Amino acid sequence: MRITHRLNRELEVWRPATEDDGAGGQTVTQLPAGTVPAKVDEASAAERVLAAQAGAELTHVAYLEPEADVLRGDELRGGGQAFRVDSVVEPSSPRYRKASLVQVQAEPGDDLS
User: Fold this and answer.
1) 109 in a structural domain
2) Any idea what the CATH number is for the domain that residue 42 is in?
3) Spatial separation of the C-alpha atoms in residues 57 and 55, rounded to whole Å
4) Which range of residues forms the domain containing residue 84?
5) Residue 110 falls inside a structural domain
């Protein structure tokens, strides 16, 4: 059974792209890579503790369709929020994908849609 009926929001996927700057370095720009339906929850205390023990930060988890094009390093944006994707996993039976997220605070002038 898929979880499509539980995915209650649409998020924009932004993917980092690197480009040579002409002076021997690179610039990284976030480019839109599509939208995905998702359900975003705050991480439970147990999930946060496990992440901290592994040296990672975790604020939210997102549930996505199994074929969702979301990768580590992407940014998910929508509803005035932005999240950095730290990892994406699938259970043994591919009913959904689960992404570990860290909420990104907006800078003045940022458009988080």
Assistant:
1) no
2) 2.40.10.270
3) 7
4) 4-104
5) no
**Distance in angstroms (rounded) separating the CA atoms of residues 87 and 91:** 13
Whether residue 111 lies inside any domain: the answer is no
3-state secondary structure of 55: coil
Domain count, the chain: 1
- pLDDT, one tens digit per residue, over 19-76 is 998 898 999 999 999 999 999 999 999 989 988 998 888 999 999 999 999 999 999 9
Is the Cβ–Cβ distance between 70 and 46 less than 8 Å? no
**Both structure tokens of 3:** 């979880």
Rounded-to-integer distance, Cα 13 and Cα 100, Å = 14
- 49 Cβ neighbours under 8 A, 6+ residues apart: none
